[in-house]
Write a structure and sequence with these properties.
Elements: E1 8-9, E2 20-24, H1 30-37, E3 41-45, E4 51-55
Parallel strand pairs: 2-3
Antiparallel strand pairs: 1-4, 3-4
């Protein structure tokens, strides 16, 4: 499965708590595709598990009060 071009969001804009999943650099599969399409935040981690990128489909996460 080929990874699409993802919409990167600023790491400091991630709302907490958030609905998201982690992934390795370059990783892509059906679970990540479905999570992204459902507008979850994808957190990309390097080999040392440092957060390096965050992605979310546009018109994404809305805080429910």
């Amino acid at each position: 499965m080929k990874r699409p071009i993802l919409n990167e969001i600023p790491i400091d804009s991630i709302p907490f708590p958030y609905q998201g999943v982690t992934m390795s650099v370059g990783q892509w599969d059906g679970f990540l595709q479905n999570s992204y399409n459902d507008r979850w935040i994808l957190l990309e981690l390097d080999k040392e598990e440092n957060l390096i990128h965050a992605y979310q489909k546009k018109n994404g996460w809305v805080r429910e009060e």
